[in-house]
Structures are given as structure tokens and as C-alpha cells.
């Protein structure tokens, strides 16, 4: 019976701690989700609101088990196809094709002229952000690229051994480009490739458990602050239900947690009032939130800032911890008249005793 009682008490206190940890005012947004089902126990999902993705390290809270599957943006280059060269003076068609055949084991050999010009064409207008030129056992002195109008294009050049990359400063839409390459003695071109820059991302989702609570409203709180009780990753979805999702600004959100007139997003000490925002070591953390004496209590709340006192004991309740309070006999200090009265009584007793002893001698 006793064991059951303590187990119940432990679970109750744990539940209270969870409830206390959650503060509605710490979340800037919330999303209301309605699941349109008749009877169901399992996970459902909805797409993460755009506001959530704007935070660098968001936190979220739900009354039910939930999990975040966040897919980040992927930026990458995609090969642009169908570029070709009709001819290069003094070279056969089969030799010219070696520089755009996708075979890095074949290459075009140029020599003597120390300069080569070739024009790449494409059947359709293509976006271009990068061109790469791979060579073998040789080097390129200079590269110039011109558009169909004869204007020279600007680019940043990156060279890694025999690999040259031309990163255009401006996006190019073209179906014809002229290249002029200068070299010493011999140039062996293995491949010329064209690329466009793509920005892509997969949708991100919130999964939460519906314990046969169909057609009820579930609320998803989120923001930069507050406790986070979300899991991570996707969950199995045996069936997809129709859902209604609406995201709102939280009217209960407190944009100044510590009430020091400095908004949360600009406050260098979020939970301790420090209107002066002092930061003596310029580490972006306010002095009030530092813990100089390493006792687990930040300076702004420490009753003995420079002395290690984890217990924060303050016997006389004067706001100054015992470890750095140099007052002696705190009760007597707060009642000084008793000190003088007690000293007077002792002095009077001493005088009386002295007089009595002197009379006895006589």
C-alpha cells in the first residue's frame, strides 16, 4: 500500500512539473488542427506552418504526443543538357565531340596555336549559372566567354588542379556562347559542362497521435522560446485523413519575459531583468545572466555574486547571502538596543558585586 502511495505521488508530481513547465505566453504562434475522421487511433500529419520554418531553433508544444519531420532546403547544381559545338577550325567532328560526349577518358588535343575559339549552341534557351572545363596534363592561361551579342560575360574562376569552374556573377539565359581559351604549347580538353543552380526543398510535417478523438481540435504551439516536448522524425501513417489547419498569432504571447523593457528578440538576458543590457565581455550574454562564482545561480539572481554559495542561504533575510554577509550575531544586530541593555546590566552587576566584596573585607 505504501509503495503504491509513493508511486502515485511520484507520478502526480511529475505531471505537475510538466504542466508548470508549459507557459502559453512563451509561444508566439499556435496552429489549430481538426481531423475529420469517425473512428481512429494512430498518427496523422499536417504541413509545418511557414512561420515555424522562419525560426533558427524553434520549440513546440502539444497536449498529445507529436513529432517534427523537418526537411531543409537543398541548393545544388543541375547539369544543363543538349549543348554542342559544330566545329573547331582544323579539327574533325569526331575530335570536337570529345569535349562534350560525357566521356572523361577521351579528350581533344590542341597545340601550336596557343589559342582556341569555339562556340557552344543549344536548341533551346537555357539558364546557366556555371560552366566547368576539365583538362589533362596542361593548363589554361586565360578564359573569356561572350554571349550571342558579343558582350563579354563576367565570372569568378575557381581552379583545382585540372578542373576549372566559371561561376557567372549574373544569371545567364542563352542558347549560344563563344569561348576563347589561351594556353601554352599544348591543351588537352576532356569535357566542357554546363549547369544551372537549383533551390529545392521537401515539405516538412508535424505528426501527432489521435487517440480516437475524431473531429476534435488539436492545438500546436510554437515559437523561438518555451519548452519543447516534440519528438523528431516521421511516423507511420496507415491512412491519410482530411484535416483543417489554421495558424494564428498568439494573443497571450509575452514579448518581454523579464519585464525589463527590452524585447525578447533583443534581450541578452531573457529571463532576468537587466534594462542596462551590460555585457562586459561582449559574448552576447548579459552580465546578469552570467554565473561568475559558478554556483548554479546567475548573477542577477545570486544573493552572493562573487562567493560560491549553491544553497543561497540568507539567515537574516536581508537579501545578502550568509557566505558574503559580514554581520555578526544577526539577531542582536537587528536589535542593537538589547546589546546595550545587556552590557549595562552586566556592568551594573559587576559594580554591585565589587561593592559587596569590599564591604565584607572591611
Task: Give the secondary structure arrangement, pairings included.
Blueprint lengths: L1 H20 L7 E8 L4 E7 L2 H4 L5 E3 L4 E4 L4 E6 L4 E2 L7 H4 L11 E4 L3 E21 L4 E7 L8 E6 L2 E21 L2 E15 L4 E7 L5 E7 L7 E2 L9 E8 L80 H5 L1 H26 L1
Parallel strand pairs: 4-15
Antiparallel strand pairs: 1-14, 1-16, 2-13, 3-14, 4-13, 5-12, 6-8, 7-12, 8-11, 8-12, 9-11, 10-11
Architecture overview:
The protein has 362 residues and is α+β, with helices and mostly antiparallel strands. The protein folds into three domains: 21-70 and 205-249, no CATH class; 78-200, Sandwich (Jelly Rolls); 291-343, no CATH class. It has five helices and 16 strands. It has helices at residues 2-21, 50-53, 93-96, 330-334, 336-361, and strands at 29-36, 41-47, 59-61, 66-69, 74-79, 84-85, 108-111, 115-135, 140-146, 155-160, 163-183, 186-200, 205-211, 217-223, 231-232, 242-249. The strands form three sheets. Strands 5, 6, 7, 8, 9, 10, 11 and 12 form an eight-stranded antiparallel beta sheet that branches. Strand 10 and strand 11 (163-183) form a beta hairpin. The longest helix has 26 residues, at 336-361. The chain is elongated, with a radius of gyration of 39 Å. The model is unreliable at 9-20 (pLDDT under 50).
Short description:
The chain has three domains: 21-70 and 205-249, no CATH class; 78-200, Galactose-binding domain-like (Jelly Rolls, Sandwich); 291-343, no CATH class. Helices cover 16% and strands 35% of the residues.
Amino acid at each position: 500500500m505504501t509503495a503504491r502511495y509513493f508511486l502515485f505521488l511520484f507520478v502526480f508530481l511529475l505531471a505537475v512539473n510538466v504542466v508548470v513547465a508549459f507557459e502559453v505566453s512563451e509561444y508566439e504562434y499556435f496552429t489549430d488542427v481538426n481531423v475529420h475522421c469517425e473512428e481512429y487511433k494512430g498518427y496523422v500529419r499536417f504541413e509545418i506552418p511557414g512561420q515555424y520554418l522562419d525560426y533558427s531553433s524553434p520549440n513546440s508544444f502539444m497536449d498529445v504526443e507529436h513529432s517534427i519531420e523537418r526537411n531543409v532546403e537543398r541548393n545544388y547544381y543541375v547539369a544543363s543538357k543538349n549543348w554542342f559545338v559544330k566545329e573547331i577550325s582544323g579539327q574533325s567532328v569526331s575530335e570536337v565531340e570529345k569535349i562534350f560526349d560525357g566521356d572523361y577518358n577521351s579528350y581533344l588535343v590542341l597545340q601550336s596555336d596557343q589559342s582556341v575559339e569555339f562556340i557552344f549552341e543549344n536548341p533551346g534557351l537555357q539558364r546557366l549559372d556555371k560552366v566547368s572545363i576539365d583538362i589533362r596534363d596542361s593548363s589554361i592561361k586565360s578564359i573569356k566567354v561572350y554571349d550571342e551579342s558579343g558582350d563579354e560575360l563576367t565570372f569568378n574562376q575557381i581552379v583545382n588542379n585540372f578542373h576549372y569552374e566559371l561561376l557567372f556573377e549574373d544569371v545567364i539565359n542563352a542558347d549560344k556562347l563563344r569561348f576563347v581559351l589561351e594556353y601554352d604549347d599544348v591543351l588537352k580538353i576532356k569535357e566542357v559542362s554546363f549547369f544551372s543552380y537549383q533551390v529545392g526543398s521537401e515539405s516538412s510535417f508535424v505528426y501527432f497521435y489521435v487517440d480516437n478523438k475524431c473531429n476534435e481540435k488539436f492545438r500546436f504551439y510554437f515559437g523561438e522560446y518555451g519548452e519543447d516536448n516534440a519528438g523528431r522524425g516521421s511516423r507511420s501513417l496507415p491512412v491519410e485523413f482530411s484535416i483543417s489547419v489554421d495558424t494564428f498569432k498568439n494573443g497571450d504571447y509575452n514579448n518581454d519575459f523579464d519585464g525589463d523593457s527590452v524585447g525578447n528578440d533583443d534581450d541578452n538576458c531573457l529571463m532576468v531583468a537587466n534594462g542596462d543590457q551590460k555585457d562586459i565581455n561582449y559574448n552576447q550574454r548579459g552580465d546578469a545572466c552570467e554565473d561568475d562564482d559558478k554556483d548554479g545561480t546567475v548573477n542577477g539572481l545570486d544573493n552572493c555574486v562573487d562567493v560560491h554559495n549553491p544553497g543561497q542561504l540568507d539567515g537574516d533575510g536581508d537579501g545578502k547571502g550568509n557566505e558574503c554577509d559580514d554581520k555578526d550575531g544577526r539577531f542582536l544586530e537587528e536589535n542593537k538596543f538589547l546589546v546595550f541593555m545587556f552590557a549595562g546590566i552586566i556592568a551594573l552587576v559587576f559594580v554591585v558585586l565589587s561593592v559587596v566584596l569590599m564591604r565584607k573585607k572591611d
